[in-house]
């Protein structure tokens, strides 16, 4: 019930290909069911600040078992989870973090991608998540 | 492809002269291409709290290779990068951080300035960045 | 003068093969010349606590451009660098971190390995470093 | 009763010249009477990990108004200040941090130097402190 390194590397490879296809440079992080880093890759020339963001997106997606952008809708001023980003040594709640499921539908980890627009980040993360 | 200490000191000197010219007292930080501090100067009487802000502005500008104020436009409530400031041990996303380029246009570091209005901070940072 | 993702992945692959050959399960981290993470892999069943250690070993090796074990010899009680581990948000100064050089002899990054005895950790790190 | 930026820059300049004279590459930090950074310079090619160490040495020297090496003699196992390094977000207690006094003998700040042997670090720090 936990992602393997082989699966994580497969997800990163698929994400990288998608990133190249849409002409972006990404940081790509995979965490396991325990929200701990399994694999990571920073493409040459990708934003340095996106390193930490990609890891935090992956953790956030597994912490709450949902896409990070959904958390971000609830964390706005006046929202029910206002400023939840202060927990867990910092969450990132805009799109780019996606849970990873096995064939049985169990969540076995998550992927976080950062380096471009949040739409591109999410598209690359989804490609990675679906590669497993 | 990395800023030298001599270049960093030249940038700080130019920034200080600009700060004096507009009657402000600034903290001025320079980071290299790896976002690590190269040089720093706090003018006498400058706000103490601006010390950390100037360093975070410089790092933020290099983390994303853009002026810090641009990040801040996207990190507002409802914006696509809302609360991105929780990453990287704290970003500062209002104006005053500017990437530094060499003659070939490569980014070799960044400057962060804090101690007055954000308009003044940005003006001083830009003066420092252009001195190289 | 900076390690590429392709080089980092090659180092991780070589390190993994060495880890398998000596029947160990390792966390393997690669940082660039700026001591920022480039690639990471945690082998299935590797100690969870070694995740952070492997990253700190890689950073430590680049911070001081030497094998981590050399720092550890100097940081013992009574040694000239006693308790240096309190700097840089935590160093790891026992063996397992090794600088990575290019063909010209320039240091372009570092590898950190953790998951077994320090002798095994160092052997796997060296194998990874030499693969580039 | 507080070091000025001009004095701090003078100390860094003297320290740099000493560092060159003994063929070393140093990180040099100056803090004021409040133990807050006033000026900093990292010489080209100096150890990256010494950045934080130089700042912590300067702070430690001002925190206790003595050379850092004296603190380190007391922080050894069995010593009266055993593991004092855990305080203040991390002290560095080996040589290289020296208080800075004005002509009246008042402590107005401190200098921290890191990048070589602790003997060299201390020699460069002392040169910087005496330049004021």
UniProtKB/TrEMBL annotation, chains A, B, C, D:
Family matches, as InterPro entries: GlcG_carb_metab_protein, PduO/GlcC-like, PduO/GlcC-like_sf
Domain of life where this protein originates: Bacteria
Which Pfam families does the entry mention?
HbpS-like (PF03928)
Q: Which residues form a coiled coil?
A: none
Task: Name it.
Answer: Heme-binding protein
């Amino acid at each position: 019930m936990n992602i393997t390194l082989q699966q994580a590397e497969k997800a990163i490879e698929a994400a990288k290909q998608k990133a190249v296809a849409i002409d972006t440079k990404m940081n790509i992080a995979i965490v396991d069911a325990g929200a701990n880093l399994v694999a990571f890759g920073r493409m040459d020339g990708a934003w340095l600040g996106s390193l930490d963001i990609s890891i935090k997106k992956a953790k956030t997606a597994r912490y709450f078992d949902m896409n990070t952008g959904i958390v971000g809708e609830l964390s706005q001023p006046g929202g029910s989870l206002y400023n939840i980003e202060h927990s867990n040594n910092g969450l990132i709640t805009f799109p780019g973090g996606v849970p990873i499921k096995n064939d049985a539908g169990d969540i076995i980890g998550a992927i976080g991608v950062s380096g471009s627009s949040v739409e591109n980040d999410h598209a690359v993360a989804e490609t990675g998540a679906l590669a497993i």
